[in-house]
Structure formats: C-alpha cells, structure tokens
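New to this. Please check this protein:
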Amino acid sequence: MAQAPVRKIIHVDMDAFYASVEQRDDPMLKGKPVAVGYAAARGVVAAASYEARKFGVRSALPSVTALRRCPELVFVKPRFDVYRAVSKQIHAIFADYTPIIQPLSLDEAYLDVTANLRGIETAWATAKEIRARILEETGLTASAGISYNKFLAKLASDQRKPNGQFAVTPDMGAAWVETLPVKRFHGVGPVTARKMQGLGIETGADLRAKSIEFLRAHFGSSAEWYHAIARGEDDRPVDAERIRKSSGSETTFDRDLTENTEIEAGVLEMAEDVWTWCEKAQEFGRTVTVKVKYADFQIITRSRSLSAGLVDRREALRDMSLSLIRSVLPTPKGIRLVGVTVSNFEERLGDELPF
C-alpha cells in the first residue's frame, strides 16, 4: 500500500498588518511608533508597529498604558474597510498556489501546498514566492512558517519575524518543540501557561515528560492535545470550508474556587482572551455564554443574546459575562473551571469574508 505523502503546510502571517498598512499609506508614519486604535481614556491598542513594540506596546494594551510606555506613540484610527480590501488581495495570491486555504483572521492563514497548483517542488520555495508577490502587489511584508502540520507551521512563522520564514522538517519537529517555552504554544493561553509553570512545566520537554494520566488529572479534555503537541504531532487538516461560528476560552483553576471575587476574576480573564480574538478577526456575535464546571464535574451554562446589534465592545462582553456568572453566585459548591464563549457571529456575504 502506498504511503501518504508528507503534508506541506504553510502558515502565512502578515507583519504588524494594520499598522503596516497605515505606514504604507501615510509616508509620514514610516519609522515612527504607530498604534492603530484610539487614544481615549478607555481606548485599547488594536495593533502596533514594530517601532512601537520596542517600547512594550502590544495589541489589547490600554491606550493610557501604551502612551506611558511610549510618549511619542502616534495613534491612527482603524480603517477596517481598507484592511479587508488588502486581505482580499492577499487571498487572491494564495489562490494561485492552492485551493486549500484556511483563514484565521484578516492577517493570517494556513495553506496546504502538498500538491500546489504551480508545481513548485518545495514548500519553502512556494512560501518564498508567495511572500515576494505579497510585497510586490501590496507593498507589505509577510512571514511564513513551513512544516508538516498546522501546530508547527504556526510556531515556525514567529521564528524569523518580521519578513522571514522558517521551516520545521519531520526529522526535527519533536526535538525542536522540546526546546520551546510552553507559553509560545498555540492553545496554551496565559492562564494555562501559569498553571503549567506551577506544575513545573516550562518547556516542551517538561510537557513531554508528563504522562497522559497526569495531564488528564490537571487539564481534563485538553490533555490529549497537550500530549500530542509535546511530540510535534497534529493531525488537524487545513479546512478550506471552515467558517468560524464562535470564539471561546476556558480555564481550569489550580484549586476549586468558592469566593465570588476570584470566580468573577477568572471569568473576566476568559472574556479578555475572547475579546482579543474577536477584535483581531473583526468578528462579533450576538450571544455570550458562560460555562461552569463544578468540583463534582457537573457542568452548567448560562447564555444571553442581544435582540439587536452585536457584542462589539470589550465593556459589553465583560458586563454580559459578569452578569451571567453572577446568576449562579454565590456557589453552592467549589468551581473548578469557567469559560466564556461568543457565538451567533454576524453573517457576511461571500465577498466580505476575512480573506
């Protein structure tokens, strides 16, 4: 029986996309620290140029904090219609090489080029040509990660940023993962990373050393995923048909919580994770759901949907999440997990999809 060919996956990630578009369109901004967002008291940075990042300015940072870190920071109002238009240009380039494209947001996507349309022999050469065309046709730079699965390709795209590419081959994947801090892993958010560190898990090697039984005891349904990625394994396909209908984040606490303030703080942290994705992808829903898993593993959910409009402000998501968790407080028993999900995303016409 013929053996299946090794998959060739490219993760393309535009470099400081929103800020780079603004610097491209306004020559006065080139070389300056730029933040896309609003400098208002309750404003938040949506994106930051590499010049701004040198001062510790990052997306989701409150604007007042960003200005304290970088007094010379220039704020530019977001122009999502322009970002979407550029995104469509980039998608058209991708489509010249493969029909198997999975967009993640306006500025990144997975491509399966195992059998690319141009007959280019290697994924490395394919990624290099795609990046060159993006620069030529849009004036923007992109970074790329190349590997045999999605997890490794996404990790690899960060390795040579900005304007570079990096490949993780099958013979180096597992060993390379062992050298990386777990906080870099896709699917390991800040809360989980802190929990792992508390359990002595700092690197991929530390994670690989833990048994599946240990991971199940501490991470529940996520154990199999962590067990696999610690070995450089990820069988997920690049799904060209995938349309994301929700965004969620959840965390298992180090101990069962009973205090209202601690439980609410956990929910707010999950709401912040969800908002970060929604803001970057510019995808907003009508329904907010809070999930609770008790110490005895009973699971309940509470949801609320807006009758009109979308949950398109951070404060709205925070307020709805707090209202929902407070509906089950005070708790009659310890809570081991909370989660927040936004769903019922606004439907878009085909020509308005992120890519």
